[in-house]
Amino acid sequence: MWTTIEYILIAYLIITAAAFIFQRRLMYHPVKSIAEPAIYGLTTVDEVFLASSDGTKLQTWTHAPRAGFPTILYFHGNAFHLADRAVKFSGFVDAGFGLVAVSYRGFGKSEGRPSEYGIYNDARAAIAYAIDKMNIAPDKLIYFGESLGTGVAIQMACDLPPALLVLEAAYTSVETRSAELYPYLLFARKMVRDKYYSLAKISHIKSPLLMFHGEKDAIIPIRHGRELFAAANEPKTFVVYPDVHHTDYTNEQLLVPLLDAARKYGLINPN
């Protein structure tokens, strides 16, 4: 006769196996259908399609910078799509920044399925486009990572240092957050394929750092941001908003510190 404990153990093993097998479906939440930028009020933003290193076609929104301004390489967060950042992009463009916002594989109109190293290659393709096609000098590039995209921005900063690294709602690593969210899965850390281990990488980055985090963020608790910030090199700035949740900042809350940092580090030189 099977005991209750044996049934519970079997059920637990089944759940654990399913979590491992389907982890990327559980982790990534890409939203597809998306119209052209003009539909969302971005009438001066162009839509282009890049090819990642494996040939995956990537939907990308671009805008040339105003004279004397840097360009933001925007690495978006999980779920939703580029259009959900339209208000934020409008703020960047109106302020004078250039924009290159790549939709990762599997998101928006981009082909493929998401994975950590696939997304890194997508980000590299966007950087190459900014440099080679838009003729933006590397010392005029700002990497802006949002939530999931903070891990992408940090890896890109290790590959090719930007003039400024901006992180919004950053985490120490996906494996750490997974273990926090699923403590009943005893092997949660070991099971995670896509780790985005930002904490181990950030001390290697010498670029100036600007970080944003909301005290009320329940998706990525602020302790992640504080730990990451403590491990980062100077110069660095941490902007904390007491009443902000996960990535629901106003344009003013992001733009004022961003413009201040861009001026401080000599990235804005209007004629």
Task: Describe the protein.
The structure is a single chain. By secondary structure, the protein is an alpha/beta fold. The protein has a single domain, classed as Alpha/Beta hydrolase fold, catalytic domain (Rossmann fold, 3-Layer(aba) Sandwich), CATH 3.40.50. It is built from 10 helices and 8 strands. The longest helix has 18 residues. The model has no long low-confidence stretch (mean pLDDT 88).
Secondary structure elements and their pairing?
Blueprint: H1 4-21, H2 23-27, E1 46-51, E2 57-63, E3 71-75, H3 86-95, E4 98-102, H4 116-132, E5 141-146, H5 148-159, E6 164-168, H6 174-181, H7 188-191, H8 198-201, E7 209-214, H9 222-231, E8 236-241, H10 251-264
Parallel strand pairs: 3-4, 3-5, 5-6, 6-7, 7-8
Antiparallel strand pairs: 1-2, 2-4
Produce a short descriptive summary.
The chain is α/β, with parallel strands linked by helices and 271 residues long. The protein has a single domain (4-264), classed as Rossmann fold, CATH 3.40.50.
